[in-house]
Protein 1
Amino acid sequence: MATSYAVTTPIYYVNATPHLGTAYTTVAADALARFERMDGKDVFFLTGLDEHGQKVAESAERNGMTPQEWCDQIAPKFQEAWRQLSISNDDFIRTTEPRHMRGVQAFWTDLYEKGYLYKASYEGWYCIHEETYYTESEVVDIDGEKCCPECKRPLRYNSDGEENWFFKLSEFGDKLLAYYDEHPDFVCPQTRRNEVVSFVKGGLKDLSISRTTFDWGVPLPFDEGHVTYVWIDALLNYITALGYGGNEEEMAEFNRRWPVQYHFVGKDIIRFHCVIWPAMLMAAGLPLPEKVFAHGFLLTKGEKMSKSTGNAVSPADLIAIFGLDAYRYYFLTDVPFGNDGSISMERMVQVYNADLANTWGNLCSRAFNMAVKYFGGKVPELSAEDYAAMEAKHGNPLKEVAEGIYAEYSQAFNNVAFTDVAAAASKLSQRANAYIEEMAPWNLAKDESLGTDLAFVIYNTLEAIRLLACYYAPFMPNTSETAFESIGLSGVTEIVNLEDVSAWGLLPAGNPVTKCAPLFPRLNVADLGLE
Ligand code: MSP
C-alpha cells in the first residue's frame, strides 16, 4: 500500500474572502500535494474554514445574519476560489461541522480527565480582533493607548474576573525544548525554529482555552456555559478532519493518517502551531506532526498584503490577466518559499515572459509546428540503430540534461524549495530552446538526405516536452495537460510513478501531434495599462 502523505493549510477565517495571502499558502500546499501524488504517495490534502469566535459572530450581526448563515454564504466563496485556482484538496473541513465539534469535545474530555485543565478567573489585556490575551510586557503603546502587538488595535482590560478554563501549557516548556532538539526539522525554516525556541525558553504561561462572553463556539463538554477559545478549536481541525473523536472506523483512518507530514502556515501563526499545538498533542498522548513549515509574507510596496490594510488584490483579477497556471507559477517561484518578498505586476510580467512565454510556451509552439509541418502531425519514428547512429553523430544534450533532473527536482520538493523545483525543470526547457537553435531543423528539412537527423531532433524536442509537462504539472496542471494532449498523451496529473516516467525515450513514436493555442501569449507591461 502506498505511503500515507498528508499536508494541511491553515483553516481560513470567514471574515474575509480569499485574497493573495490565503491563496499563497493554499497554492503552495497544492503544488506539494500534486507532486507527492505523482510520486506515488497516498495523499491527503486538507484545507478548510475557521468559523467560530466573536469576530465571526459580530460580522454576522452587522450583516443581519445568524453566524451559521454568515458562514454558509462565505464557505462556497472559498470553495469556488480554490476551484478557480485548481486546488486539489481531498477534504474541506468547516469548524461548524458535527464531525469537528464532536472531535473537539472528545479532545477536551480527554485532557480534562488527564488533569491538564483547571478553572480560574482571569484579568488581563484582551484583543477582540485576535481573540487573544496579552501580558503587560507584550502590549504596545500607540499614542498613549495600550494596543495589540499583532494587529495594533486598542486592547480592552478584562478586570471583571471572567472565569475561564486553562490548559497547563506551562508544564510543557522543557518537553517542547527537548522535542525541538531531537527533531531539528520540526519547525522550518531555521529562522522560525530559532524564534520558537527562544520564545519557549522565555517561559510559558498557562493558556486560557474557554470564553463565556459569547456563545459562538464549541461548548466545553464538562462546563456548558463555556465555549472553546477559537484558536484551540481551529487547531483541532487537523485531527478532527482525519476522524479523531469518531467511531472505530473513523479512528482507524485517523491512526493511519496521523501524524501528518506537513502543516503549511504563515510565519504569523507559528506560536500556535509550534508551541501550543504540540503541547496539546503531548498532553493527549498523540504524536506530533512531522514538520511545520512557516512561509513568509508577500509584500506589496513593502507592506504586508491583507484585507485590513486595504492592499489586497483578488487572485481572480490577476488570473484574468495572466491565466491560472502563470499565476500559480509566479507565486510559487518568485519569492523563495520561507522568505518574505515583494511582488509586483511589473515583476509578474517579467517572470511570465522570461520563464513561460519565451521559454516553455515558445518551445511547445515551435516543436508542435515543426512536427506538424515536417512529419504530418506524428511523433517521428526512428529505429534503435538510427537513433544510436544519430546520437553518435550529434550527441544528445537534451537526454543528458533530462537524466539529472528527477533527482534534483524531487530533492527540491522534499525541501519545499519551490524556486529550486522550477529551476530544475527550467534547465531542460532552456536547453531545449537552445537545442532547436543549434540544430536548426529548418535547415535539415531542406536536405532530403538529412531526414533521419531531422526526425532525431524533433523526437528529442517532443520528448523534452513530455518530461517538462510532467515536471511542471504540480505548478501548472492545466497547461501541462494541454502540452500532453498535443503529443497524444493524457492524464499528466494522474501519474503515480514520476521517477519511472522521467526516464528518457518513453514518448511513443507515431503518436499524433497537434498545434495548440499559445500556452502563454506574450504580455507587455505597457499594454496592461498599469501604473
Ligand atoms: N484562522 C487562522 C488559522 C487557523 S489554523 C488552525 C488564520 N486564518 S487567516 O485567514 O488569517 O489565514 C491565515 C493564513 O494566510 C496564514 O498562513 C497567513 O500567514 C496567510 N497570509 C495572510 N496574508 C498573507 C500575506 N500577505 N502573505 C503571505 N501569507 C499571508 O490565521
Protein 2
Amino acid sequence: MRLLIMGPPGAGKGTQALRLQQLLGAPHISTGDIFRANVASETDLGRAAQGFMDKGEYVPDELTNAMVSERLSQPDVEAGFILDGYPRTAEQVLRLEDFLGRRGLALDAVPCLVVPRDDLLDRLTARAAESGRADDTADVVMHRLDVYDRQTAPLLDLYRERRLLREVPGTGSPDDVTRRLFEALHRTVDPADEATSA
Ligand code: ADP
C-alpha cells in the first residue's frame, strides 16, 4: 500500500505512521526524521537543512525532492510505503506524482489527522518541554503552524478532489486514532466491504 499521512505539526503523524508501519509492514518514511538524522551526523544535506529547520521553515524543494527520490528508489519501498511529512508544497506534490507516474505507481490513500488548533498548541508545548528539538520552542511552533496553514493545508483540497483524502479525527487516545485510521484505510483496500457494512 502506498500511503501519505498528512496533518499539521503536533497532530501525531509520526506516532501513527510508526504504528501503520507495524500493522501494514510497509516502511515509514519521515522527511523530518531523515533531515534530523542528517543534521546529527553532520552531512552536507544536514548542514544545508539545519538553518531552515531551526527557524521552522521548510527546507527548499530541490533538496527535499532529491532526498525523497533517493529514498523512494531503494528496494524496501517497492511493495509500499508510508510517507510522513512529504509532500508539503505544491512543487513537491508534482515531483512525487512524476516520480510515481514514471514507474506506473500512484498513492492509494491520503489519511489526514484532524486536530483542533488549541489541542495542537498544547501538545506541541508539552513536547517542547521533553523533546529537546530545536524547533519545538513556542515561537518556532507558532511559525511551523503558520507555514503549514499557508503552504501545506491547501494541498488537502487536491487530494480531496482526487478522492484520496481520508480525514480522521486525531483526538482521543493513540489507540483510538489508530483504529479510526485503520477503518478508513480498510474502506480504501476493499470497497466491497464498504458496500456490505453501509
Ligand atoms: P512537524 O512536527 O513540524 O511536522 P517534521 O519532523 O515533519 O515536523 O519536520 C521537521 C522539519 O523538517 C520541518 O519544519 C522542515 O524544516 C523540515 N521538513 C520536513 N519535511 C519537509 C518537506 N517535505 N519539505 C520541506 N521541509 C521539510
